[in-house]
Specification:
The protein has 284 residues and is an alpha+beta fold. The chain has one domain. It is built from 4 helices and 14 strands. The strands form 2 sheets. Strands 2, 3, 4, 5, 6, 7, 9, 10, 11, 12, 13 and 14 form a 12-stranded antiparallel beta sheet that branches. A two-stranded antiparallel sheet has the order 1-8. Strand 9 and strand 10 form a beta hairpin. The longest helix is centred in the N-terminal third of the chain and has 22 residues. It is globular and about 70 Å long.
């Protein structure tokens, strides 16, 4: 009798462990060789201006009605791009990768891009490293700046790999830094992924983000700014394909400009939707 109970208990533990393993998601973003990733991003931003300047002269010079009208209208932007990887080199395990932007701007007008293509390589279970661009700008300094900017963007937006089960959360911090003329924008994002459920090979997450930003160039700073904000939304992760299929996020950010005689608060409301699809690259 004791033997039967022990066997039943052991069987129960094995089944419980198997069920737990099936519900555990190993989150890891990566790029497969010979693959095209189609990325579409839509973002709408509304802005509210609050001029708190103590200077009547500044208030008189600022067209507050124009600012209010611009903020109420909002700004809509649409980005369509592709990331294409080539065959893997057996000697180095690297695959060539290129990024192309098909459209960037509003839905009814496109912006002129500073480059046509960014080229580089990617290794298994890693992120792209770019080394050159295709551009009409002949200045080497421009190409170097764009390559550095793209590498920083991909590196700093990397999400660490983690294991998670439904009902549990994972939090990580991302420091971001990029130059704007003589100034530097420094941001810190703290993002929490909470796994809601798993269905059809897709892990469905609720996400929350806390944002802190500082823009200061020291003695070169014309208008130093600080900002805080937060956001929430949903994200869908393709477990087998190891890429983010979709995200739907909403952020609010309060930016302050404090340099006498100008004191201003700008409230941003940002709605962002992103989708990614994946398909084999055409041979040749």
């Amino acid at each position: 009798m004791k033997t039967s109970k022990s066997l039943l208990l052991s069987a129960g533990l094995v089944l419980a462990a198997a069920a737990h393993a099936q519900q555990t998601v190993h989150f890891k973003l990566s790029y497969d060789p010979n693959t095209v990733y189609n990325i579409e991003l839509t973002q709408k931003t509304n802005i509210h201006f609050n001029l708190d300047s103590s200077s009547d002269e500044v208030k008189a010079q600022m067209d507050t009605a124009k600012f209010a009208a611009m903020g109420a209208k909002g700004m809509a932007n649409h980005l369509q791009s592709t990331l294409t990887t080539g065959p893997q080199d057996p000697a180095t395990s690297r695959s060539p990768i290129r990024m192309e932007v098909q459209h960037m701007g509003s839905d009814d007008s496109a912006q002129t891009l500073p480059f046509r293509m960014v080229l580089g390589h990617v290794e298994p279970n890693s992120w792209p490293v770019f080394d050159s661009i295709v551009t009409d700008n002949p200045e080497p300094a421009f190409s170097k700046l764009m390559v550095t900017t793209m590498n920083n963007m991909f590196s700093e937006m990397r999400i660490p790999e983690f294991d998670i089960t439904p009902g549990h959360s994972y939090t990580y911090s991302s420091p971001l830094s990029f130059p704007v003329g003589p100034m530097a924008i420094k941001m810190k994002l703290q993002t929490t992924f909470t796994l809601v459920n798993i269905s059809g090979g897709v892990a469905h997450f609720n996400t929350t983000t806390v944002i802190a930003m500082d823009m200061d160039g020291g003695d070169n700073a014309m208008i130093p700014m600080t900002a805080t904000g937060s956001g929430s939304g949903t994200s869908d992760y393709d477990i087998q394909g190891r890429f983010m299929r979709a995200s739907n996020l909403k952020y609010t950010m309060d930016m302050g400009i404090h340099k006498e005689p100008l004191i201003m608060h700008i409230l941003f409301t940002i709605n962002q939707q992103m989708s990614t699809s994946k398909q084999p690259a055409k041979k040749g």
